[in-house]
Amino acid sequence: MIALGIEGTAHTVGVGVVDDACEVLANVSRVYQPKKGGIHPREAANHHAEHTAPLIREALDAAGIDRTDVDLVAFSQGPGLGPCLRTVATGARALAVVLDRPLVGVNHCVAHLEIGRAVTDAQDPVLLYASGGNTQVISFLNGRYRVFGETLDIGVGNMLDKLGRALGMPFPAGPIIEKRAKDGRTLLDLPYSVKGMDVAFSGMLTAALQHREKGARVEDICLSVQETAYAMLTEVSERAMAHVEKEELLLGGGVACNRRLQEMGETMATERGARSFAPPKPLCVDNGAMIAWTGLVMFRAGERLRVEASGVHQRMRTDDRPAPWAEA
Ligand code: AMP
Ligand code: MG
Questions:
Q1: What is the pLDDT of residues 166-222, one digit of tens each?
Q2: How many Å apart are CA 105 and CA 221, to the nearest integer?
């Protein structure tokens, strides 16, 4: 079985093609770059509208298949920016109707977890999903994927990107902050906001900018933000692992590409006799392959979506529906 998936919840529009062994046959994408400031939802949607059809062609070419070889069309149904979601959903519906193939709507956060389970040795992990817009700790319990902790304000990646913008770095700032942090020498005091399994980042952003106004070195700010933010994320992940009694940590989302965060996850996991995993970068960031794969496993478990009922859900919750495909 071959599934084609279209991702389009935020800045990335991506098309992936996978087979039923989760071999990634194609995974192509384009990222909308705001000219200034953050993501403008309508402009991002226009960007996705322009690129969806060419990316579908590119993915089919890369996979070396004909569009009639596609057995299933999946798309990111939520959560995300409404205009972006609607745009890629329209593309997915059109493709499914033209090919007369089933359509599956995928929860974007669950897709980060499913692709990690498929391409690493993690089987039943706690997912630390750390991206631009989202920061959540998710795991499977009693028939559903559930959110055990999350950010109370902005996503960790969004905090890094806002900080980077204020420091004159281009988007996305996360990788640049990672590089500059290597030359950091002094750990500056920043708010460490952990409430149970939840975290908050806006106070850290404000405090980091105040350090800058007082003349702190950019490298020291980068080091301090990384150390503090990633320690917070590692702490809440560990608490969730203890709570649900699981022995695997899985990282997902763009911020999960960060070596320092991966290192902290590995140290924490090792200390508690657990293991830590992160998918390769193209499957960590927002991508079409994870949507294709999750659509495929959902379909195999009997999930069906009528085109008439395939509306998007901007605020789709991870625990909205049972996840029978994840049952051991
Ligand atoms: P996503 O929203 O999952 O596509 O991921 C995008 C986010 O990941 C942006 O906020 C980036 O700044 C962040 N990001 C990407 N690479 C890194 C990295 N190496 N370290 C920290 N953050 C990163
Ligand atoms: Mg994501």
A1: 999 988 999 999 999 999 999 999 999 999 999 999 999 999 999 999 999 999 999
A2: 41
- Please report which helix (H) or strand (E) contains residue 127, including its range: strand 126-130
- Could you tell me the two tokens for 292? 């294709």
| AA letter at 164 | G
Q: What order do you get walking across the sheet with 2-7 strand by strand?
A: 24-31, 12-19, 2-7, 72-78, 103-107
Dist. CA 18–CA 1, nearest whole Å:
8
In the three-class reduction of DSSP (H, G, I as helix; E, B as strand; rest coil), residue 231 is classed as helix
Q: What is the pTM of this model?
A: 0.96
CB atoms within 10 A of CB 95: 21
H/E stretch holding 17 reads: strand 12-19
User: Which protein residues have a CB closer than 5 Å to ligand 2 (ion)?
Assistant: 131, 286
Q: Which of 135, 160, 287 to mutate to test the pocket of ligand 1 (most atoms within 8 A of CB)?
A: 160
Q: Residues 6 or more apart from 177 whose CB is under 8 A from it?
A: 160, 163, 164, 169, 222, 225, 226
Q: Whose CA is nearest to atom 8 of ligand 1?
A: 254
